[in-house]
Amino acid sequence: MNFYCNPLRLEYRYQVIPDSTKEEFTVSREAADPTVIEFHGQYYLFASMTLGVYTSVDLVTWEYHRLPEVLPLYDYAPDARVVGDYVYLSASNNAHPCNFYRTKDILHGPYEEIPGTFPFWDPNLFVDDDGRLYFYWGCANDKPLYGVELNPDTMEPLGEPVGLIYGDPSEKGYERVGEDNGRYGEATFSSMPYIEGAWMDKFEGRYYLQYAAPGTEFNTYCDGVYVGDAPLGPFVPAKNNPYSLHPGSFLPGAGHGSTVTDAAGNLWHASTMRISVNHMFERRVGLWPAGVDADGELFCNQRYGDWPRRVTGKIEDPWAGPEWMLLSYGKHVAATSEAVGHEAVHAVDENVRTCWMAEVDTNPALILDLGELFDVHGIQVNFADGDVHLPEALQTVPEGKERRIIDEPIYTRFLLEASCDGVHYDVLWDQRQVTTDYSHDFLPMEAGRKIRYLRLSQMQLPFHQRPSVSGLRVFGIGGGELPQQATAEVTAAGDMDLEVTMSSPDAVGYNVLWGYAPGKLYHSYLTYEAHCHIGALKKHGSYYLRVDCFNENGITEGKILNIDL
């Protein structure tokens, strides 16, 4: 299998978080703040609140491994870096000095502890070409990201920390808080962004310091980038900012991540995707192709960022479009049981924050009609968590912890059947006996199969939940005509915002692309509406914009427009 579909197919861990009174608790899944490294021919993905690490040989299929208790598994934003023969690990805690750990064998250890000398949030270790170590950290809306050189033997700072990146939402629209960067009102806690999630890379002798803003609970959670000629700066914002942004489509968000080079020399960027329904930190992990262009600008391709993507060998064109189109949006769907407010239509509305939920749990079924026969090549089944009944033994928090990360074996099971006529069904995907827990499962079928109807049934979700599906997403190839080129009207709405209105009678949706030059339309916003607000812009910038439209048969590119703010 060499196709994946964001969010990544990982076994996301549940956690129990008491409220401030300790009388109630929330339950949600989380994996966030991903660090991806390559070590001895294998990829390792570390993420917050997972108690372990995921391994892969191809960036597509990931296997979970529990890590030893000696590591700070309950601390956020785990960082990992290869330094010589070792991998160095650390994680966030501002209550006490944070230790470093190093090992030559991530899965089996042993781990050598290097006592910490100062507390930090969102750490990132970087080793320069000359072997010198530098350290970056920070996570606050009133402080910058810091950097300092470390003694490679003791991991103690060599000198005083340097403030490197400060929040500036008055000049950088992508740092403004709120949905669509404040389009629908300011965040309730502050108007200043959280500047966090440092990650350093070096390309062609230049240093690229990446950072996250404005907050993980917003659809515009993104990674910006500053560039400098030395590891501690000075740094200036790159022309292409933000670097990683995915504000639309099924599951938005692309902030607080890491950039890794694969075995074929391709760059990939992993970041945090937002759900934030059951808890603000209900999050997932996404992965996208990245690169550095001829002008030294770091970019990330998120144009169809949660559609299936092939991973194989050297990527010749990082901007190549999707091989398969979305077939399921807005199609007729019915359920044998549905709860009020969680009707079946929510399984195909391309919104991870809504879901179909059965009213009763006596083997309900969800039946999707694509409207005609299609060549289906990929199906993603996304389960929501809306009715979790934890056993009493798991409702308590371990002593000395602020939460419980559930480590007991749990399974997500279902049966998916396919039909051409809605009467005779064949088994397409039988997950009824699996011993895995994939809440976002993906079945690629490269050869394709003719399908009109899909029936999802016999769902067994963890902790006796009523079956809940946030997305039954189907991808493939239609045999009809491409949509007509979209007409688009773009107007400035202030000095950091654009309003875009578009129309095409044959389109299912639109992808608004923009950038600072006609050949650098590196940012995108996928929407199924005829209007889009873009607030992730720099003050008084000059932008080029193109509105592409798509349907089940493919994509029609729009005309490039220019607008000055």
Please characterize this protein's 3D structure.
This protein is mainly beta. The chain contains no helices and 42 strands. Strands 26, 27, 28, 29, 31, 32, 33 and 34 form an eight-stranded antiparallel β-sheet that branches. The protein is globular. The model has no long low-confidence stretch (mean pLDDT about 95).
Number of E-type strands: 42
Report the CATH superfamily of the largest domain.
Glycosyl hydrolase domain, family 43
Shape: globular
CATH class of the largest domain: Mainly Beta
> Which regions contain 5 or more consecutive residues with pLDDT less than 50?
none
Tell me about the largest β-sheet.
Answer: 8 strands, antiparallel
Helix content: under 10%
Binned strand content? 35-45%
Report Rg: 23 Å
Assign the CATH architecture of the largest domain.
5 Propeller
The structural class is mainly beta
Tally of discrete structural domains? 3
What CATH calls the topology of the largest domain is Tachylectin-2, Chain A
> How many angstroms does the end-to-end distance come to?
45 Å
What does the average pLDDT come to? 96
Annotation field: number of helices: 0
Q: What can be said about this structure in brief?
A:
The chain is mostly beta strands. It is built from no helices and 42 strands.
SSE inventory with pairings:
Layout: E1 3-4, E2 13-18, E3 25-30, E4 35-39, E5 42-46, E6 52-56, E7 63-66, E8 79-83, E9 86-90, E10 100-103, E11 112-114, E12 124-127, E13 133-137, E14 139-140, E15 145-150, E16 162-165, E17 195-203, E18 206-213, E19 222-228, E20 235-237, E21 255-261, E22 267-274, E23 283-292, E24 298-300, E25 309-310, E26 325-326, E27 332-335, E28 356-357, E29 366-383, E30 404-405, E31 413-419, E32 425-430, E33 440-460, E34 468-477, E35 487-492, E36 498-503, E37 509-515, E38 523-527, E39 531-534, E40 542-551, E41 554-556, E42 560-564
Antiparallel strand pairs: 1-25, 2-3, 2-30, 4-5, 5-6, 6-7, 8-9, 9-10, 10-11, 12-13, 13-15, 14-17, 15-16, 17-18, 18-19, 19-20, 21-22, 22-23, 23-24, 26-34, 27-29, 28-34, 29-33, 29-34, 31-32, 31-33, 35-36, 36-39, 37-38, 37-40, 40-41, 40-42
